[in-house]
Design a protein that fits this description.
There is one protein chain. By secondary structure, this protein is α+β, with helices and mostly antiparallel strands. The chain contains 3 helices and 6 strands. Strands 1, 2, 3, 4, 5 and 6 form a 6-stranded mixed β-sheet that branches. The chain is globular. A hairpin with a 4-residue loop joins strand 2 (136-151) and strand 3. Helix 1 (82-104) runs parallel beside helix 3.
Length: 219
């Protein structure tokens, strides 16, 4: 499973050659490690706003509803550029929509497919299916930071960001047990994605790659 322990093995989405991870100063694909996120335990007082209220169902957008133990800390800053801020917002909703599909145990859930197409959507489907096969979901707190957005002349946007999975874990549905794993350099993942605005005005992720243990994302 992408961002969780090796149990749900890392899945690497097809790369967008134009996106260089080195450009990251600082979402959902090749995560492996025995701590691949399943949003984690030990969130303490750091719970972010309830995911159930995270995505307004406006303009036909799906409502994102997640278990109360699946939380986030998005440290992405407003850029002041309407287009770039829209890219960040829709990328955030895609991340949450994938976790919602995992919680629902539905590899074909409409919400994540609303925010992704092509290899990104195919990769997410495979990732979600791994959780379903293992009867597991995510739990805990996941942090996103060190983002960089570049608008391209061809109408696409390049997004690079980091993910901190140190407090995110796998939770098994049958036993209710959370697999709390040790924090290592592999708890930190860098992502590079390509997004394009569709006819509905949504920035859809078309391609996404990731690298676990990247020096760019270490604390």
């Amino acid at each position: 499973m992408n961002r969780r322990p090796t149990l749900l093995a890392a899945l690497t989405l097809t790369a967008a050659a134009a996106l260089t991870l080195s450009a990251c100063g600082s979402d959902d694909s090749s995560k492996s490690k025995d701590n691949d996120k399943i949003a984690g335990a030990d969130t303490g007082a750091e719970k972010s706003a309830s995911p159930s209220a995270s995505a307004p169902a406006s303009a036909g957008r799906p409502k994102i509803e997640l278990p109360s133990d699946v939380t986030y800390r998005f440290e992405w800053k407003k850029t002041g550029d309407a287009q770039k801020d829209a890219v960040l917002n829709d990328a955030e909703q895609r991340i949450k929509a994938v976790d919602m599909a995992i919680a629902k145990q539905d590899p074909l859930d409409k919400a994540y497919r609303f925010y992704s197409e092509g290899t990104a959507a195919a990769g997410s489907q495979k990732y979600i299916q791994e959780f379903v096969d293992h009867k597991a979901r995510t739990t805990g707190l996941t942090r996103y930071y060190n983002e960089s957005v570049t608008l391209k002349d061809d109408g696409t946007a390049a997004l690079v960001y980091c993910e901190d999975q140190s407090k995110a874990f796998n939770k098994f549905l049958k036993t209710g047990k959370t697999d709390v794993t040790k924090v290592t350099k592999d708890s930190y993942v860098v992502y590079a994605g390509t997004l394009r605005k569709n006819d509905s005005g949504v920035w859809v992720t078309e391609r996404l790659i990731s690298e676990r243990g990247s020096a760019k994302c270490q604390p």
